[in-house]
Automatic annotation (TrEMBL):
Keywords: Coiled coil, Signal
Region (Disordered): 79-103
Signal peptide: 1-17
Biased composition (Basic residues): 93-103
Extent of Polar residues compositional bias: 83-92
Upper classification of the organism: Eukaryota, Viridiplantae, Streptophyta, Embryophyta, Tracheophyta
Coiled-coil segments on the chain, per record: 37-75
PANTHER family linked to this entry: PROTEIN LITTLE ZIPPER 4 (PTHR33601:SF1)
Protein name per the record: Protein LITTLE ZIPPER 4
Superkingdom to which the source organism belongs: Eukaryota
């Protein structure tokens, strides 16, 4: 093999070696980014799970309160009217007492 051909071959091997090193470095960087994304995904998944549990608890509490309210309303269907009229009566008494105190 001639000296020129040998130099070309060595040069090609050197270039390929450098490309291999560059690719290995890029691969390591991508691997680290991937690990970071996996950790962030896990953190977000746990936060979403926590929020979901809180939402489920709040929904259960709301449904329980709704069932209680419906049970009360079925037992006393006119309860809403009584509440409305008694509060307006109470307001009249309050207004009457208030106006007497200021006179």
């Amino acid at each position: 093999m001639s000296t020129g051909a040998l130099l070309v071959r060595l040069l090609i091997e050197r270039v390929l070696s450098i490309k291999h090193v560059i690719m290995e470095k890029q691969n390591a960087e991508l691997y680290m980014e991937n690990c970071q994304m996996i950790r962030e995904n896990e953190r977000l998944r746990k936060a979403a799970e926590q929020l979901n549990q809180e939402n489920q608890a709040l929904l259960a509490e709301l449904k329980q309160k709704q069932r209680i309210l419906e049970a009360i309303m079925h037992q006393k269907p006119d309860a809403q009217l009584k509440i409305g009229s008694s509060s307006s009566t109470g307001n009249k008494k309050c207004n009457k007492n208030h106006s007497q105190k200021h006179n």
